[in-house]
Every structure is written in C-alpha cells, then in structure tokens.
From TrEMBL:
It catalyses: beta-D-fructose 1,6-bisphosphate + H2O = beta-D-fructose 6-phosphate + phosphate. One of its GO terms (biological process) is fructose 6-phosphate metabolic process. The chain crosses the membrane at residues 22-43, 107-126. PROSITE patterns: FBPASE. Residues 418-548 form the Fructose-1-6-bisphosphatase class 1 C-terminal domain. Its EC number is 3.1.3.11. The lineage of its organism: Eukaryota, Discoba, Euglenozoa, Euglenida, Spirocuta. This is fructose-bisphosphatase. Its cofactor is Mg(2+). Pfam families: FBPase, FBPase_C. One of its GO terms (molecular function) is metal ion binding. One of its GO terms (cellular component) is cytosol. SUPFAM superfamilies: Carbohydrate phosphatase (SSF56655).
Length: 550
C-alpha cells in the first residue's frame, strides 16, 4: 500500500504594475494623436480616404464590345464602341480612367496611419502580462488523498516456439457493490415466458459487476434439475435408504442417506466447474474445500490472459430434509454465495490452540466464516409436486418453476412479499415443554388468538425446512426451530441454512431472529455452528422480540 499523499495550497501573489504605468500613458497618447490627425483630415476633405474614379455620362449603359445583329457586326469591323440604348459613338477619352493628382492631405493620412500602427506595436510589446489567481470556492488548506491498494499480476508464457509473452496487469482494490439494478423485461415470449437463463442475462446486462455470477447460477440450476430427477427416481433406481447400508455419518453425527452423498457430489462438481469458486462448504463436508481453478496446460499456448477465477465462496445443504425422502415428503437444496475478499470477520485469537491447522485451511475459514450480511446471493430449490427455484440477489425475491417439457425454470412468482401477519405457524410443538418461557408464551398466543393481531393461527409442520419456509413466504406466518433443553443452541446450521433463508425472508419484507439477536448479524465461529431460529412477518417477529426483551 502507498502512503497517503498531501497537497498544500500556496498563497497567490498579485503582480506589481506601478513600475510600467508610463508605457501605458505613452501608448495611449500616441493612439489619441493618431485619431485626432485622422479626424481632422476627414473633416477637411471627406474624399481623401478613397481614390477618385472616372465617371461616364449618365445617358446610357456602356457595353465593352458590340451588340448582336447587323449593327454589332459593323461596329466590330470598325472597332467603334456604342451606347447600348442609343447606338451613338463614345469618345475614346471617356473610356479611360484619368488619374487624379494626390491632394495635400494624403501626407497627413499616411502619418496618422503610421502613428496608429506604431502605437499598437508599442502597447502590445510593453504591456505587462496580467496573471490572475484562480478563484476557489472556499479556502483550501490541504487535500488528503487516501492510499489505493493495487495488485500487480505478471503472466508469462510462450506464444510459440520462438516467441515469449509477458503481460502485466495492475488492478485497483475491489469496490463492494452497494446494490443492484433489477432486470427489466420489455417483451416476453408467449410460449416460454421469462426463463431463469434470460433473467440472469438481464441481471448481468444491468449490473456488469455480476456477470460472473451468471455462470454460477447456470451451474446451480443445472445441479438442481439433476437432483430433482434423482429424487423423483430414487425409489425406482434404488437410491433410498442409508449410505453403505448404515453406519455412515456426517460431521454432525447424522446418518447419511444415499442421496445425501450423491447430491453433495453433484452440486459440488457443478460449482467447481464454473471456474468462479474459491472455496466450497457443505453440510456433508467436514471442513471447507478449496477449489483448484488451474486451467489445462493446453490453454497456455492460445490463452495469454490469466483467468480471474475463485471470486465466490459457496455454502450449501445439498438435500435438506433428506430423512423424509424415502417417504416421498418434499425436500430441498439450500445455498448461499459470498464474495471472496479480505474482509475477514474472525477475531485475532480465533486460531489460538489450532496448531494442527495449515495455512490453506486457515485461509478457507477466513473466506467462509462470514455473517449473513456478507451474502451476495441466496436461495433454495424445492423438490415437491413441482420443482421450484427461489432466490435473491439482494433486490427482492423471485420464484421460478421447472417446466420439464423444455427443461427451463420459468418465472412464476415475481417479487415475492411476505405479509406482516399470516395465519399459519410451523414449529415442532412436541418440544413445547422444553422451550424457554418467552417462546412458550408466544406460541400459545398464536394458537389461542391472544396475540397482538387478535387472530388464532393454524399449525402446519412438514419437518423439512425448505418446504415450511416456502409455504411461509407464499402464505405468510411464522416458521421456527427454537432452542430447547435438548438442543441448547438450536438445531439448524447458521452458515448454510439459517443465514441464507434469513436473507430470503428479509428481502421479502420479513424478519428473522434467535429471539434476542438478528440472524444476519451473527458471525459464525464454526462451519457447522447451530443457532435457534424464528422467522416470519415483521409484526409477528417484533412481538416475539418484545417478549424476550421483557
């Protein structure tokens, strides 16, 4: 980094003009004298400024040759000029301009003109150059120019057997996007509608900084289509049941289904193939995985510019609710996308006591463990009676439905908004006696209608977060998995379940909390950290927070 540069404004000193005033006086006097002389001459003889011209008698118009016809031919033979109107001969003396002798005033006119010329030359030569200081809108004492982080990248290679190439690129520090422009569709196809592919193309056109995100979403939707097919055919293709016949568990100690492992591999490969992923973190992976974006060696002879890969970090749960998949209950995929930067949220002593962790793993964790406020995109795919794809880029929530006949997601739920209050709550009431008192009181008020909205709610609970949140987004209401005596920190994972879903809910106009803290503000301390979660309409969540605060 460069040190800040300081620019100091210098005082302006006006030039001295008293020493050369005499030159202006002399010049002015010379000009005045010349003008007076010329004026006197003009008054005495007004015709002195132009030469006399020979005048012809005003009896007709003179024609230099002869007219057409017989008279003209005769005149041509005798070379005699004629009057055009009368045909009379003109004396030869009248055809020549007689010189007029110069009058005595011509000398005065020449002297006056010479004096004017000399006066102008003297004034222009002796006149001091005027230098005026630039006007400033306000006194400027100093300007501090902040240092700019610059990255210098040198790429070398061989264009052919005899030609080496070196390319140097200097890039300024990355600017964080403050917001995005929503895509505008002036025309749609009656047969296909607005596809997810076209939607992302328009997003990239409106927001050039998000062009690389287009390829990321192309890979995610391809993976979701593949997972939808696997779920639909799981019973036919023998992909139900536990992995390896039972005994296979993930890092959280949960038994893995066959589809857990398969879908994790599908989504992980799809993201890695984009060339835009730097780190990938999954529910089924013990630790974040760094992505190798090295290009094939065969590209080196043709591609001279280095690809800017590894810009994004992806976190995901490949098959949420997989314990229900064998029963045909709706399941889904949850994902979140972070932008890779140096904005590390970890404390300075985070890695103390972790001597067995190498530098690469520390770098992965620094890139991955970020609060939900750092998300640039989040969404889910729901595999149910239809396959739905719902996501946000930070400018509202849009829902798409898979048209299997053309293999495209079609925009069916634009700009989803969750109402401030609904009429459904989704929660596992079997744990009611294990909740803390504010949560018990809150759910009781929803069930009995003693809440602030004075309306009794209906209980609907699938047990699959994606299914329950999807219904909450469309119909309104409350979804929650609070802490209890068995799960003191809740059960849902912060990084790849709670934070991405909270991002969606907030972009739809709702809120998400643990009861005391906004979910999006919590920085993860571990990839698989769990948190209590309650989300829903803004009025409903405000009422819950007040109960916890009192």
């Amino acid at each position: 980094a460069m040190a800040p540069l300081t620019y100091q404004t210098q005082n302006q000193v006006p030039p001295a003009i008293g020493s050369q005033q005499w030159t202006l006086v002399v010049g002015a006097a010379t000009v005045v004298s010349g003008l007076l002389c010329a004026g006197w001459v003009f008054a005495a003889n007004p015709t002195a400024f132009y030469a006399p011209v020979a005048q012809l008698p005003a009896t007709g118009t003179l024609v230099g040759t002869v007219l057409q016809g017989s008279l003209g031919n005769a005149a041509r033979r005798q070379n005699v000029p004629v009057y055009a109107t009368q045909g009379n001969a003109i004396p030869e003396r009248l055809l020549q301009a007689e010189p007029t002798p110069a009058s005595g005033s011509s000398l005065a006119v020449g002297v006056g003109a010479a004096m004017l010329l000399i006066a102008s030359m003297v004034v222009n030569y002796l006149k001091p150059v005027s230098r005026q200081p630039s006007a400033l809108s306000a006194p400027l004492k100093a300007v501090l120019v902040p240092a700019v982080e610059r990255v210098v990248r040198l790429t070398t290679g061989m264009a052919d057997a005899r030609t080496s190439v070196a390319i140097m690129a200097v890039a300024s520090e990355k600017k964080k996007a403050v917001g995005i422009k929503s895509p505008v569709f002036n025309e749609t196809c009656d047969q296909t509608g607005i596809t997810l592919t076209r939607f992302m193309l328009e997003v990239a056109r409106a927001n050039p900084d998000l062009q690389e995100l287009e390829s990321v979403f192309a890979s995610i939707q391809t993976a979701c289509k593949t997972i939808a097919k696997l779920v639909k055919r799981s019973a036919i293709d023998g992909m139900t049941g536990l992995q390896a016949g039972g005994g296979a568990v993930n890092v959280q100690g949960e038994e893995q289904k066959k589809l857990d492992v398969i879908t994790n591999d599908v989504l992980k490969r799809a993201l890695r193939f984009t060339g835009r992923m730097g780190v990938i973190a999954s529910e089924e992976e013990d630790v974040p995985v760094e992505v190798d974006n090295t290009m094939d060696e065969s590209y080196g002879t043709d591609v001279l510019l280095e690809e800017s890969g590894g810009r994004y970090i992806s976190v995901f749960d490949p098959l949420d609710g997989s314990s229900n998949v064998d029963a045909g209950i709706p399941v889904g995929t949850i994902f979140g996308i972070f932008s890779e930067d140096d904005d590390c949220k970890l404390s300075d002593d985070f890695f103390d006591g972790k001597q067995n962790m190498n530098d690469a793993m520390k770098g992965c964790l620094r890139s991955t463990l970020k609060p939900g406020t750092s998300l640039v995109a989040a969404g889910y795919a729901l595999y149910s009676s239809a396959t739905h794809f719902v996501f946000t880029l930070g400018a509202g929530v849009n829902g798409f439905t898979l048209d299997e006949s053309i293999g495209e997601f079609i925009l069916t739920h634009p700009d989803i908004k969750i109402p401030p209050r609904g009429k459904i709550y989704s929660i596992n009431e079997a744990n009611r006696n294990n909740w803390d008192p504010p949560m018990q009181e809150y759910i009781e008020s929803l069930a009995t209608g003693t809440n602030r909205g004075k309306k009794a709610y209906t209980s609907r609970y699938i047990g699959s977060m994606v299914g329950d949140v999807h219904r909450t987004l469309l119909y309104g209401g409350v979804f929650g998995y609070p802490a209890d005596t068995k799960n003191l920190n809740g059960k849902l994972r912060l990084l790849y379940e709670a934070a991405p879903m909270s991002f969606l809910i907030e972009q739809a106009g709702g809120k998400s909390t643990t009861g005391l803290v906004r979910i999006m503000d919590i920085p993860p301390n571990d990839v698989h950290q769990r948190v209590p979660l309650v989300m829903g309409g803004s009025d409903e969540i405000d009422e819950l927070v007040e109960l916890y605060e009192t």
